[in-house]
Amino acid sequence: MRNKSARYYAFLSIAAAILTIALKFGAFFLTNSVGFLSDVMESGVNLVAAIGAVWAITYAAKPPDEEHVYGHSKAEYFSSGFEGALILVAAVSIAISAIPRLLDPQPLEQISLGLGLSIFASIINGGVALILLREGKRLHSITLKADAHHLLTDVWTSVGVILGILFVSVTGWLILDPIIAIVVAANIVWTGIKLIKESGSALLDASIPLEEQQMIKEILSTYHKQEVQFHAIRTRMAGAKRFVSLHILVSGNWTIQRGHDLCEEIESAICKALPNTNVLTHLEPLEDPKSWNDHDL
Fold it and tell me: Which pTM was predicted?
């Protein structure tokens, strides 16, 4: 499974969403619980989001063309932001469904069987979420990570609903069913906001993670003893791809071949440490004041 593509895991998410929708709808049908209905709606959003993830991952994998010379990897950020928006929609829908039950609480039926179906659905979602989270990190796919967080949110939604239904069955307080649904809706809003914020930051060319920036600095530090200096070091992420640019300053007495060889060596070292990275270097003479007009940002 470790050699599968991001697209494979997106399809896995679709399969999990379809199965859990069926299980959760069965729980709602048996119990007549608005809490379980909110859980069904959350899984419905999961399905739409998973389908969007397949599109984003497929489009992002397309090679560069004349219109998009840097590739299409940023498509994943649109999917992630869309998924965050869907989570917010789901939260509002859950709250709207629960309000009428606050005014007119309804008795619950066949609670034990409904709880069993919901627990089984939660186990499926939790397992798939952990797989997507692991593979999203390995493949540097924000779409898979967003889908994983969405599924984990669904798990917590289900846990809250299950505990609420259990409490209703023990106490007989029917009004707890819609209250639990509203509390869960409020809780998942944060996940949606976080995904939207992360996607927006990435679309604005956010830098690569700090630990990866430090790796680049450590590589460059090994060349300072050769009277080589660096500045204008800039990085950005675009889906699974990294882009790094920097200016390399050397003595003006160096030959073009020697400077070229150094640039190739540095580019190769960075790409080896950070696979799937595009490195652009610019060679400048140390002695020329104009070489220092650009600065690190």
Answer: 0.61
